[in-house]
Amino acid sequence: MKVLVTGFEPFGGESINPSWEAVKALPDEINGAELVKHRLPVTFGGVREILPRLIVKERPDVVVLTGQAGGRPNITVERVAINVMDSKMPDNEGFAPEDEPVFEGAPAAYFATIPIKAIVKALREEKIPASVSNTAGTYVCNTAMFTALHTIAVAGMETRAGFIHVPFSHEQALDKPRPSMAQETINRAIKRAVEVSIEWEG
């Protein structure tokens, strides 16, 4: 089995992105499954170009995408990605789309195919705050999730895929009154989410 796990580069003036820090900390193998780790750019164009190429090349059995949702207090496992790019905050290339589709002619939305409820249950059993989220937003994270699921659907692959948002790390929240989580806890959460995604036989 092969698992593609991605995190994002820093954005919004931050010097780190806890999603990529968590992905970097993962081992190269979990429960016999090979892990392929990749850092994505925080650009709408970049994820739409890079993710399809990665998925088609690697042919993973599972794709676990991760990203930062500064302001959220817990780990949030996304239920759905929508075919919309809309942001007042420019991406790292200065692009700020308004009401644009991720892909013209694609479905309005895709549901995650990783076991979102099982992941949340497993994290909470580890005393890690976690919940299901019903919106991945309309920024680059949603675009990444939609791109992965659309690529898999178009290619007729049976790959399971989904997206997990993580809060600010404590390091990022030192100078701002925002919810945060220890990076070590974020790391444990992503590792456990990958384990559940591998083990799940639903």
From TrEMBL:
Q: Which GO terms describe its cellular component?
A: cytosol
Q: Where is the active site?
A: 78, 141, 165
Q: Which SUPFAM superfamilies match?
A: Pyrrolidone carboxyl peptidase (pyroglutamate aminopeptidase)
CDD domains in the record: Peptidase_C15 (cd00501)
UniProt keywords (A-Z) are: Cytoplasm, Hydrolase, Protease, Thiol protease
* Example GO biological process: proteolysis
| Xref: Pfam families | Peptidase_C15 (PF01470)
Q: What is its EC number?
A: 3.4.19.3
Where can this protein be found?
Answer: Cytoplasm
Which transformation does this protein catalyse, written as a reaction? Release of an N-terminal pyroglutamyl group from a polypeptide, the second amino acid generally not being Pro
Q: What is its main location?
A: cytoplasm
Which one of the record's GO molecular function terms can you name?
A: pyroglutamyl-peptidase activity
Highest taxon of source? Archaea
Q: Which NCBIfam families match?
A: PRK13197.1, pyro_pdase
The UniProt function text for this chain reads: Removes 5-oxoproline from various penultimate amino acid residues except L-proline.
Q: Which family does it belong to?
A: Belongs to the peptidase C15 family.
* Stored PANTHER family: PROTEASE FAMILY C15 PYROGLUTAMYL-PEPTIDASE I-RELATED (PTHR23402), PYROGLUTAMYL-PEPTIDASE I (PTHR23402:SF1)
Q: How does it assemble?
A: Homotetramer.
The name this protein carries in UniProt is Pyrrolidone-carboxylate peptidase
Q: Which organism is it from?
A: Thermococcus pacificus
